[in-house]
Amino acid sequence: MRRGVRIQNLGGALAVLLHRPHPTVQALTRQLEAIGLNVAIAWPELPPTSLAADFVFFDADMGHSAQFPWPEGEPPVPLIALIGSEAPGRIEWSLLAGAHAQLLKPVGDSGAYSALLIARAAFDAQHAMQAKIEELQNRVNARMTVVKAVMRLAARGKSEAEAYAQLRHMAMAWRISFEEAAERIVGPDASDERDAQ
Amino acid sequence: MTRRIELGLLYSRSGDYSLISEACRSGSLGAVALVNADPDIDLTFVPVERDPGGDVDLYAPLCDEILRQTSARHVIGCVTSWSRKEVIPTLEASGGTLWYAVPYEGFEASDHVVYTHACPNQHLLPLLEWALPTYGRRAFLTGSNYIWGWEMNRLARRAVTGAGGQVLGERYLPIGSVDIDRIIEEIEATEPDFVLNSLIGRSSYQFLRAYHDLGKRDRRFLPQTRPVLSCNMTECELPAIGSAADGLIAAGPYFQGGGTDWHGPGTFGSSHEAAAFAAVWELARLLAHRPGSEALSLSNLMRTDAAKGSRIDHQTHHTALPALIARANAGRFEVIQTHEAVAGDPYLTHPRPARDIRAALRVVS
């Protein structure tokens, strides 16, 4: 899959830096403001407003999971690790936290822009893949319902192939998915059997 | 008492882009002379020159030499983006500042660089906003094979396709190569409405001559109908091209006889000269009557009172510049359109202003 890098709408985006006061925070703030972002600095906790941030940078050296106001490893925004110590334990924790990109400390004159673009691309890709997995999971879960719907239609004297085609036409006419059409035909009691899988 | 302040100059006086280097050097030295002769300015600049001779690998060591062996903290220099990116780590290590007086492709805002020439929202975007409705939306893109050509063409592709247009071809040549026949053949075959030329130096001169010859052979490719557009061509390179440059359309912050006085006093041979003059002139303004300020880092210098009201943006270190669009004719550029000064937007994160209705449209007969 070829993905373009989204470079628009970084202007006015909010980046929250979860890091104790430090020259790295100043250097990073300078870079982010030059790019056109607004910057908020937080330590030791991320305030609830960080849920509305467009990017969160966090300190991989001193950070811990309780600092994030979301379930571990499920950041709702692109998350960028600020890594000073490249100790494997700290890198492992950054990955568990769900980092989408990293920037090495000390932060100097550059690096923030590529970290922003890479983190957002990774975040978008992760969400697109998650949505696809959920869709496929729902379809797998509905297999029994589809079988029952086809059997019910076939019981009215159609061949299996005809019944299948009829179900597809219904889904198209109702503008719903094949699986949802099957569920309408089978009726609400079908959900118990689906769960039983 | 007059302070003597050493000032680095890092321009290649030979090599592929020496005409641009010479224009920048001449603008810098012109400003130095004017500063040194001004009794109201309590400083004189003492130029410390190093010549990398067009070898990109010599820029960082020679910049380092200026910053370590002399008292200079400010260096005026570099022409290609490649050489600028080479010296930035040196500037970071020594706390020095580079004043860069050449149009570039944006996506940089170093804490150690002042950008006194235009970036894409000040050259490429106004040029395309004018050219697409004027000539059409089918573009051919050329460039030298390094960051300037690549990024300019990436931005042009976005702008052209975003406006519903088409990119018919995109071709690169190594810096210094004059192997342009294939590009000319592709242009002949695809008949674009315009060619955006981001080649540099000899490649560019050779391309412009060959395209001019094509126009003489085949009227479909005359510049009136299918012009070549450029964001890096100024008067300083016209002598190398001769009459083959006639009809070339260029965008820039200054052309001889056009524009405003953003650069400080005087008139100049080209925007390269004007931007290098402006760099030294602005530096003198920032340092004047503040003994010791010559040792400050750029970020600290930009916090002084003198920096209030500067054309240099405190966050990006880019310069607010007008955008002029001009057509080459008989060794000069004739200004077609003038957009008033806008701040440099190196990351293109700020919305484009609506077309400036005050942009003066002057018909050139």
Keywords:
heterodimer, A: alpha/beta, Rossmann fold, 2 domains, five-stranded parallel sheet, elongated, disordered C terminus, B: 365 residues, alpha/beta, eight-stranded mixed sheet, 21% strand, globular
Concise structural overview:
The complex is a heterodimer of chains A (197) and B (365). With 197 residues, chain A is of the alpha/beta class. Chain A has helices at residues 23-35, 88-97, 112-141, 143-154, 160-174, 178-186, 190-196, and strands at residues 14-18, 38-42, 55-59, 79-83, 101-104.
**The CATH architecture of the largest domain in chain A:** 3-Layer(aba) Sandwich
Enumerate the strands of the largest sheet of chain A in spatial order, edge to edge or round the barrel: 2-1-3-4-5
The description of the largest β-sheet of chain B is: 8 strands, mixed
Mean pLDDT of chain B: 94
Helix and strand topology:
The complex is a heterodimer of chains A (197) and B (365).
Chain A: E1 14-18, H1 23-35, E2 38-42, E3 55-59, E4 79-83, H2 88-97, E5 101-104, H3 112-141, H4 143-154, H5 160-174, H6 178-186, H7 190-196
Parallel strand pairs in A: 1-2, 1-3, 3-4, 4-5
Chain B: E1 3-10, H1 18-37, E2 43-50, H2 59-69, E3 74-77, H3 81-94, E4 97-100, E5 113-115, H4 124-135, E6 138-144, H5 147-162, E7 166-173, H6 181-190, E8 194-198, H7 201-217, E9 228-230, H8 238-241, E10 249-252, H9 271-287, H10 298-301, E11 321-329, E12 332-342, E13 360-361
Parallel strand pairs in B: 1-2, 1-3, 3-4, 4-5, 6-7, 6-8, 8-9, 9-10
Antiparallel strand pairs in B: 10-11, 11-12, 12-13
Helix pairs in contact in B: 1-9, 2-3, 4-5, 6-7
